DNA sequence: TAACTATACCACTTTTTAGTAAGTTATTGC
DNA sequence: GCAATAACTTACTAAAAAGTGGTATAGTTA
């Protein structure tokens, strides 16, 4: 099913409209994190979904990946400028949930 | 998989984090619409998904449904106060998509 | 009386998303 | 030699989301 190109909202939802993407982006707002640390922050995510989701975010240029050539591996993730530009939206979603869940 | 109750973002995504929900809400921002008209605004949605999605929005108190007892049926949908409180977020998502898609 | 209307339901199938569990890598330290 | 490590990767399965096509309704109009 094709999306309506005329609706930018659709464009946005295609980029971040999944279960885990907003969560991962949100947890990177404050600081870059090592792969394992970030994953532990996202309660409930499976190893597979984490890798898969962050790969897509990377492919879409919302997240960057920095690999340190050491053993054992060290990988760091952070937001790109494009990713950072989502900050108001992510905070908005979070704030709305906080407020609404108290009603 | 349970969601992290501690993260309000998760709460919000549970309410509107699907393919069609934000679209439907967005198209109701300006005015209440008859079922058929609304559905035609959402390009690509199937009849079944429309009904199913709007039922959930109604159940969650984001959308109200007004039925006129006439034949053929007339049904109107609109945003509740709770639904309207999502306006900044919906517009934010739309605006972000518009800006980003031009880069 | 038969077609038309707007809305919504149901059964069924396909597609997408998510979860589990195991295996891979290359080096350190015992 | 072998376990421990961090970050994946793969094969398989389960669950959720979405699509298709058909049916019901009951007045109005032709």
Automatic annotation (TrEMBL), chains A, B:
Gene3D superfamilies: Winged helix-like DNA-binding domain superfamily/Winged helix DNA-binding domain (1.10.10.10). It comes from the Bacteria. The keyword Iron does not apply. It holds the Pfam family HxlR. GO terms for molecular function: DNA binding. PANTHER family: TRANSCRIPTIONAL REGULATOR, TRANSCRIPTIONAL REGULATOR, MARR FAMILY. This is Helix-turn-helix transcriptional regulator. The lineage of its organism: Bacteria, Pseudomonadati, Bacteroidota, Flavobacteriia, Flavobacteriales.
């Amino acid at each position: 099913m094709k999306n309506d190109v005329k609706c930018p909202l659709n464009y946005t939802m295609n980029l971040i409209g999944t279960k885990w993407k907003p969560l991962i982006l949100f947890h990177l707002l404050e600081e870059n994190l090592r792969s394992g640390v970030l994953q532990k922050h996202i309660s409930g995510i499976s190893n597979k979904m984490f890798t898969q989701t962050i790969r897509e975010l990377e492919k879409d240029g919302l997240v960057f990946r920095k690999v340190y050539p050491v053993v054992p591996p060290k990988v760091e993730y952070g937001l790109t400028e494009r990713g950072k530009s989502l900050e108001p939206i992510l905070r908005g979603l979070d704030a709305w949930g906080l407020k609404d869940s108290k009603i």
